[in-house]
Amino acid sequence: MPGILMRWLILTTAIIVTSYLLDGIRIDGFFSAIFSAAFLGILNAFFRPILLVLTLPINILSLGLFTFVINALLLLMASGVVPGFTVSGFWTALFGSFLISLVSFILNTFIGGHGTIVYVDKRRAGVRNSS
Predict the structure, then answer these.
(1) I want to staple 24 with a disulfide (CB 3.0 to 4.6 A). Which of 51, 63, 88, 123 is the partner?
(2) Contact 102, 13 (CB under 8 A)
(3) Nearest Cα residue to 40 out of 69, 5, 79
């Protein structure tokens, strides 16, 4: 359960950051961001796998870049349902889906499999100090 809440918070943060970076995406308040992240998470959980299977040939031909088009359509769907969350057009949704994916990827690198913050020690165990 903490993993779902942590990823929900990450998606909310990604939506807020994207709304600050793009003029066409507007969030009226923090609760609108929370509800839009929840609805976008539900859309990603239920409809995104179906859409990925249906568009598999074009997704293979585009080397996976068509996934951003699917994410943009889901972002437009979420903006149509959630009050206080508006996306002005398709191209804004496309760039917004790219930014949301990028910010979510960066923030999810700090989260482990169970939703906890992980610390990665990059020092090698076999390296000795040269003192």
Answers:
(1) 88
(2) no
(3) 79
